[in-house]
């Protein structure tokens, strides 16, 4: 059973930075892609960034140039470096990993204050 555990969320002022981590219970290289999603109150869950097995990355337009997704295969961990945070980045951030099915983490809260 694959488990994904997110960490690194918290409260930060606008303009600040946070780094989220998604630690997998097994080898992340076994996944076709790993992504970060977020869900703000009363909004649909949206894709923030994704990274494939071949290190191709994808970003939502709203975070391009501010967020960076990366992976450390040796640590079975995917990171989301978030810089220049805005109030509208406030959400619960989820890690998702795709193999023959999608696995989700439990989420980590990110709150950006003005």
The Cα radius of gyration reads 13 Å
Q: Biggest sheet, in brief?
A: 7 strands, mixed
The fraction of residues assigned to DSSP E strands is over 45%
* Count of helical stretches: 0
Stretches where pLDDT falls below 50 for ≥5 residues? none
Percent helix among the residues? under 10%
Question: Kindly state the mean pLDDT as a whole number?
Answer: 95
Q: Overall 3D geometry?
A: globular
Number of strands: 11
How widely separated are the two ends? 40 Å
Q: Give the SSE order as H and E letters.
A: EEEEEEEEEEE
Going by helix content, strand content and strand pairing, the class is mainly beta
Describe the structure.
The protein has strands spanning about 5, 10-15, 20-25, 35-40, 45-50, 55-60, 65-70, 75-80, 90-100, 100-105, 110-114. With about 110 residues, it is mostly beta strands. The mean pLDDT is about 95.
Keywords:
single chain; 114 residues; mainly beta; 11 strands; 54% strand
Layout of strands and helices, then pairs:
Blueprint: E1 4-7, E2 10-13, E3 18-24, E4 33-39, E5 46-52, E6 57-59, E7 67-72, E8 77-82, E9 91-98, E10 102-104, E11 108-113
Parallel strand pairs: 2-11
Antiparallel strand pairs: 1-3, 3-8, 4-5, 4-9, 5-6, 7-8, 9-10, 9-11
């Amino acid at each position: 059973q694959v488990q994904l555990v997110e960490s690194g969320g918290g409260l930060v002022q606008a303009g600040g930075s946070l780094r989220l981590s998604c630690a997998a219970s097994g080898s992340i290289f076994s996944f076709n892609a790993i992504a970060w999603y977020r869900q703000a109150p009363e909004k649909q869950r949206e894709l923030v960034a994704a990274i494939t097995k071949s290190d191709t990355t994808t970003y939502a337009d709203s975070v391009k140039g501010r967020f960076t997704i990366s992976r450390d295969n040796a640590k079975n961990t995917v990171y989301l470096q978030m810089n220049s945070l805005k109030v509208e980045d406030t959400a619960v951030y989820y890690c998702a990993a795709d193999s023959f099915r999608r696995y989700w983490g439990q989420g980590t809260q990110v709150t950006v204050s003005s």
